[in-house]
Design brief:
By secondary structure, the protein is an alpha/beta fold. The protein is built from 12 helices and 11 strands. The chain has 2 domains: about 5-25 and about 60-260, Type I PLP-dependent aspartate aminotransferase-like (Major domain) (Aspartate Aminotransferase, domain 2), CATH 3.40.640; about 265-355, Aspartate Aminotransferase, domain 1, CATH 3.90.1150.10. It binds 4'-deoxy-4'-aminopyridoxal-5'-phosphate (PMP).
Length: about 350
């Protein structure tokens, strides 16, 4: 295990490995009661009562990290909290990919930010299209991966197809790429996957697996921007060196802790159950709508639907105030719209707009 993480760490950019982590004033505060080391205001801002908003927040808020470790059933040292999982994607690419030389591997159609982060860093993107049934073609992916490939992104359930990637597929990739590349498993939508097991279950045996989770979807906190990377503690420490000094605003920490209280989690579970039942209702109903060619099976909180004339449907929905995502430009998704599962009323509006009456559950 430890041999395996040290070899993988050698694959990170040497200049980052050599860097000292920035030590922020808040990290040095210790037990002090008169805090004059961070050029903060001694008074709370107007309208915030006796909040501590005049103080910089904890760079990795202890209570939140502890709660996230409990939620995801991993050790606190394996948790990096960031500004949405988007930030973790960016940090990984910056830490591992040398500009103009290194590459990442993805299987499109998939979430767009992996490629955006790579291109921003000057890293090329090796693309291996998903198979026709939207499964990841591991052999084709491995055949294209070279020594320059540092990160392999697997999104499960995948955005925008909704398909779940079996753990065995992820394990095959991790085994084949041991000591060579980090397999980053993006589980932004895993809570909607009917109890599917997280790739965190591979962390004990595969140091080259990292998992992304977010509070933006199932926990209804997209506005607070709280994402988590779960990985070997040494990878967490590596990314801390290049992360912004105070990535999580104090107000967002409070909102996240409230959402993750026992009542908050119970409410999230009830809402997930509603969304799963609604996903079933839409999946059963939509095939009967004029112009619907296919409703792809989904393990996420959206459906990828192929229409005979997606542009016409998109415009017709928009005219009724309903906006969906046109994903037709993605390879293999011509004519597809991605429809988020909304509240029961919102979903009924979608069915009505497509000329369907409600289908009883
Ligand atoms: N991964 C996937 C697959 C996503 O679809 C999204 C958001 N659309 C993200 C990550 C980013 O999530 P966050 O809000 O945590 O940055």
């Amino acid at each position: 295990m430890s041999a395996s993480i040290s070899k993988l760490l050698e694959r990170a950019r040497p200049e980052i490995l050599a860097m000292q982590a920035y030590s922020s004033a808040r990290m040095e505060a210790g037990q002090a009661t008169i805090m004059l080391n961070a050029n903060e205001s001694p008074w709370a801002p107007a309208g915030s009562g006796d909040s501590e908003l005049n103080r910089y927040p904890d760079p990795q808020p202890k209570a939140l990290r502890t709660r996230l470790a409990e939620l995801y059933d991993v050790a606190v040292e394996q948790i990096l909290v960031g500004r949405g999982s988007d930030e973790a994607i960016d940090l990984l690419v910056r830490a591992f990919c040398h500009e103009g030389r290194d590459t990442i591997a993805i299987s499109p159609p998939t979430f767009g930010m992996y490629a955006v982060a790579a291109r921003t860093q000057g890293a090329a993107v090796i693309e291996t299209p998903l198979a026709a049934d939207f499964s990841v073609d591991v052999d084709a992916m491995l055949a294209r991966i070279t020594d320059s490939t540092k990160l392999v992104f697997v999104c499960t359930p995948n955005n925008p197809t909704g398909a779940l990637v079996p753990l065995a597929t992820i394990e095959r990739l991790a085994t084949a790429l041991r000591d060579r590349a980090l397999v980053v498993v993006d589980e932004a939508y895993l809570e909607f996957a009917d109890g599917a097991m997280s790739a965190t279950s591979l962390l004990g045996t595969h140091a080259n697996v990292a998992v992304l989770r977010t509070l933006s979807k199932a926990h209804a906190l997209a506005g607070a921007r709280v994402g988590t990377l779960i990985a070997h503690a040494e990878i967490v420490a590596l990314l801390r060196r290049i992360q912004a000094p105070y990535p999580i605003p104090a107000l967002c920490v409070d909102a996240a802790l409230a959402a993750l209280s026992p009542q908050g989690v119970a409410q999230a579970q009830e809402r997930i159950a509603v969304l799963l039942s609604e996903r079933g209702r839409l999946s059963r109903s939509l095939p009967a709508a004029a112009g619907v060619l296919a409703v792809h099976p989904s393990s996420a909180n959206f459906l990828c639907v192929r229409f005979a004339d997606a542009q016409k449907t998109y415009k017709a929905l928009l005219a009724l105030g309903i906006i969906v995502r046109d994903v037709g430009r993605y390879p293999g998704l011509a004519g597809c719209l991605r429809i988020t599962i909304g509240s029961p009323q919102e979903n009924t509006a979608v069915l009505g707009a497509l000329g369907l009456q409600e289908v009883a559950a």
